[in-house]
Design brief:
It is a single chain. Among the domains are: 80-164, SH3 type barrels, CATH 2.30.30.830; 175-283, PDZ domain (Pdz3 Domain), CATH 2.30.42. Helix content is 22%, strand content 31%. The protein has six helices and 15 strands. The protein has helices at 7-34, 161-164, 186-194, 196-202, 227-230, 250-259, and strands at residues 83-90, 95-101, 104-109, 113-114, 117-122, 126-131, 134-139, 175-177, 182-184, 203-210, 213-222, 238-242, 245-246, 265-272, 275-283. Strands 8, 9, 10, 11, 12, 13, 14 and 15 form an eight-stranded mixed sheet that branches. The chain has a four-stranded antiparallel sheet with strand order 4-5-6-7, with no helix packed on it.
């Protein structure tokens, strides 16, 4: 039988193992005697870049709110050209005019305001207004016949508009229904002749036109229990004439107003629906 290993080879391997064991024992001795017990320290590298970045995970904050600027639209400034002068009544103690503004008529006395303009006075064919320490003048519109306003002596009273305006003290007179006519206390006539603004508070009057022609004045409202309700006028009535004079212009109406204190009677021709009727008054 043939041997796989020779004795010489076995002895060589044994000798090699013994040599390796001796070398390992010698290294152990060196490690215990000369090397530090805590192991080898490695110098820490300084100044390197960080391997991470700070990231903000919260959503972006809205910027601090700023004080909003005013976006309110400025009020448009009115123009004196928007006002048309239709009629003037200018006496020594009172100034009353009729104007048209935005297709509506309005009666103004001295010191009244319209479109931001204050009535300061009037002449024979013009009216003077003030606004923001400036003075404006508008001329009277001429009617088709070319007549101008009804006016008398220009007022010479001095003082502020509130001082020259007549007092609106309470009146004691009244209106009594006498059947076929009505009795009007003269103190009422005198009071309303000097306080035209009180007329507009108690009765509304608007133009009644046929096409472009003025055919009278329509009553738009009458204040309940007022003196004007006692005159027998109703809403919707159209005043056609006064004392037989047709009211086809503002001048005709102002002419009656100017002479009201000298009258002892008054008659109104009105239409109510399709009916024409007369309202008679006695002033005493």
């Amino acid at each position: 039988m043939k041997h796989l290993f020779k004795p010489q080879m076995f002895k060589g391997l044994l000798a090699l193992l013994i040599l390796l064991l001796i070398i390992k024992l010698l290294w152990f001795v060196v490690e215990v005697v000369w090397l530090p017990s805590t192991g080898v320290e490695h110098a820490e590298e300084k100044g390197g870049k960080a391997l991470y970045y700070r990231v903000k995970l919260t959503p972006n904050e809205a910027p601090a709110p700023t004080k909003p600027t005013s976006t309110r639209p400025t009020k448009p400034q009115g123009s004196i050209k928007d006002i048309e002068l239709l009629a003037i009544y200018n006496a020594s103690d009172i100034t009353v005019i009729t104007v048209s503004y935005k297709n509506k008529t309005k009666v103004l006395s001295k010191g009244d305001e319209i479109n931001g303009f204050v009535l300061e006075g009037a002449g024979s064919n013009f009216a003077t207004f003030s606004k923001n320490a400036k003075t404006y003048q508008i001329s009277l519109l001429k009617s088709k016949k070319g007549d101008n306003s009804v006016s008398t002596t220009k007022s010479t009273a001095s003082g502020t508009p509130s001082e020259t305006r007549s007092s609106s003290s309470k009146v004691e007179g009244d209106i009594v229904d006498a059947g076929d006519h009505r009795l009007v206390d003269k103190s009422l006539v005198e009071h309303y002749a000097k306080n035209m603004e009180e007329i507009t508070k108690n009765i509304g009057i608007a133009e009644q036109k046929e096409g472009k022609d003025l055919k009278g004045f329509r009553v738009t409202f009458v204040r309940k229990n007022s003196h004007f309700s006692k005159l027998g006028l109703r809403r919707g009535d159209v005043i056609k004439s006064i004392n037989g004079q047709e009211i086809t212009s503002y001048n005709a109406a102002m002419d009656v107003y100017k002479n009201i204190n000298a009258m002892d009677s008054l008659s109104l021709t009105i239409t109510r629906g399709k009916e024409e009727m007369e309202l008679e008054y006695e002033i005493n």
